[in-house]
Structures are given as structure tokens and as C-alpha cells.
Amino acid sequence: MLLDTASLYFRAYFGVPDSVKAPDGTPVNAVRGLLDFIDRLVRDHQPDDLVACMDADWRPQWRVELIPSYKAHRVAEEVEVGPDVEEVPDTLSPQVPVIEAVLDALGIARAGVEGYEADDVIGTYATHAPGPVDIVTGDRDLYQLVDDKRGVRVLYPLKGVGTLQATDEAWLREKYGVDGPGYADLALLRGDPSDGLPGVPGVGEKTAAKLLAQYGDLAGIMAAVDDPRSALTPAQRKRLDEARPYLAVAPTVVRVAADVPLPDVPVALPRVPRDPSGLDALAARWGLGGSLQRLLSTLQEGPED
């Protein structure tokens, strides 16, 4: 099981009231909410391995160089050396180091790689994992990793993590008319304002899905643009032709990397904390209470026979 950790702690932050606080009055709603999420996921799905994938760089320079608008609207502060600072709610930012410390003390694997987003870490684990993989994320971009043959699916939270949409190829085809890799082509054609991806003007989701159904993939669509006998309308041909500079670089930006140098971390789900005394100190300092105790009990119980 691969967690898109930032996606989940953002959901926890907005789903759990900020009246949930540490003894000193600091909000810990994201911390406790994420622990509750992990507890529920482990109980419901009983993974053998669990990795909390992190954004070591939420806006990698190699993506920005190809499409400068990539996530540009989320930049709170530009940094000359290292990742730009992302716009994050004031009371969430201080909770992220606490989340990291608690995961480390529990012994839950945490993986982030310099120069890459969590999506890329997830993509690399999912591509190279030998067995079935569940990716838990509120980011539809990761639908591109869905692969029935390899047992890779996306669990998309609809309400907390108790109600998850299990996204497999059948669901993707019914909803969008594409498979996993086809979803990346669909996304780059229609664009995504939340990621600063312009897309092809005049090509929305339905038109993109129709073009992909007709021509197979982006390469097939561009071959049709070059073929005067193809069934593209004059307007479609013109729009796609004018979008060539964008379409030449968009696949590299939109498709998650599958070759990230992953850290050597033990990924097996822990049954007991790696650092019990450190965890006790964190629990007392941040008032993690029942959220942590429930997760510890679930981990200790192990898989059902």
C-alpha cells in the first residue's frame, strides 16, 4: 500500500476540526486525522507493506522548465536554491514535521526523493513492486498507474478513507473511456487548472476521450493531424497543430516518473514501534491520545487468519 501522504494529510486537516489541539494549544488535527486514516486503511485492507510517500520537491525544476505555469499559482515564495515554498494553511505547515516524526517512531516507511514529487515515488514503487499494489490518493493524476494485469489500483477517498472508490481499468473505461496510460494522455489534452497545465484550447474531457478512442493515444492523434485524410474536423486539426510545442513537452510533465532512485527503507508494516520511548514522548508532547493508541492496537493485532 502506497500513501500519497500530503494528499491524505491535507484531507485530514480540512476534515478534522482545528479544535483538536496539543496540550499547549497547537492544532494537531492533520496529525491525528492522518493516524486515524492509516488505522482504518490497515484494518480494512491489511497490507503486508506500507510506504508513506512524501513530496521532497512538490514542484520539480525539470517540470517547471518544460511548462513554466506548472503549479505556479501555488507558490508562496520562490527559492533560488531548492524547492519553492508551497502555499499551505498556516496551521498545517507546523504539523508536517510532527507527522514525519511520528511515522518514523512508529517504524512506518517514509520515502521522499530530492527533485521528485510523491507521485514519482509512488510511480516507481508501483512499477517495480512484485505483487498487487493499492495506491491511496485524492489525486486523480495517479489513475495513470492503474494496471489490472499487475494488480495496481487506486483507492480514491470519497468520504474519509472509510468509503474508497476502487479504481481499476473497468472503472476508468466506464468513466473516461481510457485505460491507465490513456488517462495521462487525456489529462494533458484537457489540461488541469489545479496543476497549471493549460491543455489544448477547445479540447475538453469529452473531446479528448473521443480522440483517444478514435486514434489510440497521443502519438496516434498527432499522426492524424499530419494525415489530410483523417477524420479530424478542421477546427480540431488547427487546435492540435497550434498546440504542438505544448504537446511535445506535456507528456514528460504529466506522466509520473518510474525510475526514481528509491531509498533503502524497510517497507514491511511494523507490528511494534521502532522507537517506543520516542513515540511516548511525541504522544505526550502533541496529545495524540486515542488516534495513536488505536493505530498501535491495529498494528499489534496483525493480519486476520
Structure description:
By secondary structure, the protein is of the alpha/beta class. It has 13 helices and eight strands. The strands form two sheets. The chain has a six-stranded mixed beta sheet, with helices on both faces. A two-stranded antiparallel ribbon has the order 3-4. The longest helix is centred in the first third of the chain and has 17 residues. The model has no long low-confidence stretch (mean pLDDT about 95).
Please give the structural blueprint.
Blueprint: E1 2-4, H1 5-15, H2 29-45, E2 51-53, H3 61-66, E3 75-77, E4 85-86, H4 95-106, E5 109-111, H5 118-128, E6 133-136, E7 152-159, E8 163-167, H6 169-176, H7 180-190, H8 205-215, H9 218-226, H10 234-242, H11 244-254, H12 276-286, H13 289-301
Parallel strand pairs: 1-2, 1-6, 2-5, 6-7
Antiparallel strand pairs: 3-4, 7-8
Helix pairs in contact: 1-2, 2-4, 2-13, 4-12, 7-8, 7-11, 8-9
List the main descriptive attributes of the protein structure presented here.
single chain; 305 residues; alpha/beta; two-stranded antiparallel ribbon; 8 strands; 46% helix
Total beta strands: 8
Neighbour order of strands in the largest sheet: 5-2-1-6-7-8
**Total DSSP helices:** 13
Low-pLDDT stretches: none
The chain-level structural class is: alpha/beta
- Return Rg in Å: 21 Å
Helix content: 40-55%
Reading the helices and strands in chain order gives EHHEHEEHEHEEEHHHHHHHH
* Overall geometry: elongated
Whole-number mean pLDDT: 93
The termini sit apart by 19 Å
What share of residues are in beta strands? Answer: 5-15%
Biggest beta sheet summary: 6 strands, mixed
